[in-house]
Amino acid sequence: MAPPWCLCWALLPALALALLGLAAAAGPRQTPALELAQELAEELWSAGLPGDLPELEPECRSLLAAFAEGSAALTGCLGRRARPVRLCQGCHGHYRRLLAQYDSIARAVGNSSESHNCAKSILTSDRLQIVVTLSEFFNETWEAANCANCLKNNSEGLSNSTEEFLDLFNKSLTCFEHNLQEQTIDLSPNNYTEVCKNCNDTYTKLNDLYNHLQRMNRQGGESAHSAHLCIDVEDAMNITRKLWSRTFNCSFPCSDTVPVIAVSSFILFLPIVFYLSSFLHSKQKKRILILPKRIQSNANLVNIQEKYS
Ligand SMILES: *[C@@H]1O[C@H](CO)[C@@H](O)[C@H](O)[C@H]1NC(C)=O
Ligand SMILES: *[C@@H]1O[C@H](CO)[C@@H](O)[C@H](O)[C@H]1NC(C)=O
Ligand SMILES: *[C@@H]1O[C@H](CO)[C@@H](O)[C@H](O)[C@H]1NC(C)=O
Ligand SMILES: *[C@@H]1O[C@H](CO)[C@@H](O)[C@H](O)[C@H]1NC(C)=O
Ligand SMILES: *[C@@H]1O[C@H](CO)[C@@H](O)[C@H](O)[C@H]1NC(C)=O
Ligand SMILES: *[C@@H]1O[C@H](CO)[C@@H](O)[C@H](O)[C@H]1NC(C)=O
Ligand SMILES: *[C@@H]1O[C@H](CO)[C@@H](O)[C@H](O)[C@H]1NC(C)=O
Ligand SMILES: *[C@@H]1O[C@H](CO)[C@@H](O)[C@H](O)[C@H]1NC(C)=O
Ligand SMILES: *[C@@H]1O[C@H](CO)[C@@H](O)[C@H](O)[C@H]1NC(C)=O
Question: Which residues form the signal peptide (predicted)?
């Protein structure tokens, strides 16, 4: 059992932080992350420890604070746009800003002695290395989402083909909405004939563009994620295809059965083609085998010629 004073000591820092928080709320306007960093620094200072304590320089502290706020903003953005997926469209600005913030930490050497090296003290002075861990997490998430695929080369904004795709996606959804609304007014609720007919054009365009993008992508790069388009585009197509074929049941069965019949009849004919070709081939071989015999027996040939002449 721990003696009761132990509990008090454990609670003290929390109490101090709470009080500092209250005090800071009354102080001049500053970003919360920067405030906290300054408070922690002042706490160490007032504890009267030696001067060469590895404390962050002010400009280092503000770099760290900027990174903290950048990660909070990016995390919030990713979470809010998780479903339906709008990560790449909505969060690329946040991601780019965070990359810049991480970069300026990594490049910041600070202006004083080696022990006060800003990058070193933020990125590598402890086992956890939380700033590196966070940055890695965001990099991996961004990579897995394959957002680079739907952004411009310099990643400032969406690429043209992505804009075009999203525009068609919006049109498709709008078309579905319109035709469903009309339907509930004057038709039975589960008759989607109108949707299939009126939105076929838009849907077909969307589907074609998606297939085109996929083909371009496969040809393009050989990276690990090159089989995928960016998640926003994939998810939008997934949603639309599911609506079209499952909810509205617009995929006509005949358009599915034609390739099936074609493929199965091709396979059915394969044995026939095989036997026919092997038959013809063996016939050809016989001829080749017989021919040298005749040449060999030159005498016979002469005989035959004599006979026929
Ligand atoms: C170094 O930092 C101090 C305060 O942190 C600042 O006054 C000074 O201008 C800086 N020097 C350079 C060369 O950046
Ligand atoms: C994250 O990616 C950026 C750009 O690709 C890179 O500069 C940075 O070092 C990466 N972060 C980590 C922790 O590897
Ligand atoms: C994209 O940028 C890379 C360098 O970052 C460059 O090599 C490549 O040619 C660019 N591609 C296009 C289409 O601009
Ligand atoms: C993208 O579209 C803009 C205008 O809409 C155009 O200026 C630009 O050249 C296009 N880029 C590509 C790569 O097609
Ligand atoms: C389509 O885009 C317009 C404006 O760009 C927007 O007002 C509308 O809500 C979008 N529709 C859908 C279904 O996302
Ligand atoms: C659906 O509505 C169309 C008219 O818009 C009608 O011709 C068709 O017979 C209806 N189908 C069913 C299954 O009710
Ligand atoms: C949609 O249009 C295509 C031709 O553009 C046609 O082959 C297909 O049967 C149509 N589908 C529906 C559901 O009307
Ligand atoms: C499409 O949706 C299904 C089920 O909703 C899901 O299992 C699948 O992973 C999705 N595909 C993509 C490419 O997101
Ligand atoms: C979809 O439509 C086909 C005929 O076009 C019908 O045979 C099938 O039962 C329908 N499926 C659903 C889930 O409505």
Answer: 1-25
